[in-house]
Write a structure and sequence with these properties.
Helices cover 15% and strands 37% of the residues. The chain has 228 residues and is an alpha+beta fold. The protein has a single domain, classed as Fumarylacetoacetase-like, C-terminal domain (Fumarylacetoacetate hydrolase, domain 2, Alpha-Beta Complex), CATH 3.90.850.10. The chain is globular. This is Fumarylacetoacetate hydrolase family protein. GO terms for molecular function: acetylpyruvate hydrolase activity; metal ion binding. Belongs to the FAH family. Keywords: Hydrolase, Metal-binding.
Length: 228
């Protein structure tokens, strides 16, 4: 069966999209896609999109549950992101609205101390990004158009205080550029998702933190953190 048809299983209801996380094929992420975020971590602004991935077993829904994260491996940082889901493979020249069918707001959790140690030795840092519950996703919503999303803000509130806010119009590489580049370098197909990068404001989480994801000032996902 054609891949684009296999993933026509989403159900639009009350403005949301019902998506089974088990149907997600690849989890791609973009590094340093907001200039202020690159600067806050002391990194240079990239000249081309930078991709990494997370295993699918790191995916988890922000549905009010308590997330268990490693408490014995150094600092854990939250990175809030706009996430897109593909309904079909990328085809050059095809409108994005025919490729991307839905979006969510996600959190890319990072073991920052571990990542920096691995980077300093020139080692891969998948283990600092791909641990259990490291890829949080809110409810998915229909992706009607870029224009419908460009000027709306997504944000993360920690214990009732806004700690991150972003807008896709501020991305260094826009959605079309990300799709084209990811397709050329890694391949893209129906069921893949892309975490498109985090704005500035990345910070540390602690045991007991309550995290709330917002899109266009509406609360669309919640988790509570426990460090174990």
């Amino acid at each position: 069966m054609d891949a684009s048809k296999r993933f026509k299983h989403t159900l639009k209801r009350e403005g949301t999209v019902k998506l089974n996380l088990a149907s997600i094929r690849n989890v791609y992420c973009v590094g340093r896609n907001y200039a202020l975020h690159a600067a806050e971590l002391g990194n240079q602004k990239p000249s081309n999109p930078m991709f990494f991935s997370k295993p699918t077993h790191s995916l988890v829904k922000a549905d009010g549950r308590t997330l268990s994260l490693p408490g014995d491996r150094g600092l854990i940082h939250y990175e809030t992101e706009f996430v897109i889901h593909l309904a079909r493979p990328y085809v050059e020249g095809l409108p994005i609205e025919q490729i991307v069918d839905s979006f969510a707001i996600g959190i890319d959790f990072t073991l920052r101390d571990e990542q920096e140690q691995l980077k300093s030795k020139g080692y891969p840092w998948l283990v600092a990004k791909g641990f259990r519950n490291a890829a949080v996703l809110s409810t998915f919503f229909p992706f009607d158009s870029i224009d419908a999303c460009r000027d709306k803000e997504f944000s993360l509130h920690k214990n009732g205080v806004q700690v991150q806010v972003g807008c896709i119009r501020d991305m260094i590489f826009d959605l079309r550029t990300l799709l084209r580049s990811c397709s050329q370098q890694l391949g893209l197909d129906a069921g893949d998702i892309i975490y498109t990068g985090t704005p500035s404001g990345v910070g540390e989480i602690a045991d007991g933190d309550q995290l709330h994801l917002f899109w266009d000032q509406k609360n669309i996902g919640d988790v509570r953190i426990t460090l174990s």
